[in-house]
Design a protein that fits this description.
With 112 residues, this protein is mainly beta. The longest helix has 4 residues. The termini are close together. It binds FE2/S2 (inorganic) cluster. FE2/S2 (inorganic) cluster (FES) binds next to loops.
């Protein structure tokens, strides 16, 4: 099995305070939400799977869960799994790497 690495630079880690969410954009134009929970960084899709809410603009963090303010659905930002109705479908999570004080997502893929 081989794997490729494609690191995308999203922001400086110091620009995102503990408990904050920020919007980022992948080279494809896909919007992502970047989270800082006690110095641990996570990246998910920015758009809620229930509607068109932006989790970085309309969401708030409660531990490892982001709550969408439109209808109060929640997701676990570690897995993307929904954890409160009306959200039923997972959002995508991206692998995060911190290097030289920058937050990256790895868009590389495993291939066998
Ligand atoms: S749009 Fe997010 S919970 Fe409805």
């Amino acid at each position: 099995m081989t794997s490729t690495t494609e690191l995308i630079d999203l922001c400086a880690a110091e620009d995102l305070a503990d408990g904050e969410i920020r919007r980022g954009t992948l080279p494809s134009g896909h919007a992502v939400a970047i989270y800082n929970v006690n110095g641990q960084f996570f990246v998910t899709d920015d758009v809620c799977s229930h509607g068109e809410a932006s989790l970085s603009e309309d969401g708030s963090l409660d531990g490892f869960e982001v709550e969408c303010s439109w209808h109060y659905g929640r997701f676990d930002i570690r897995t993307g799994e929904p954890c409160a109705m009306p959200c039923e479908h997972a959002i995508r999570c991206f692998p995060v790497k911190i290097e030289d004080g920058r937050v990256y997502v790895d868009l590389g893929e495993d291939a066998s």
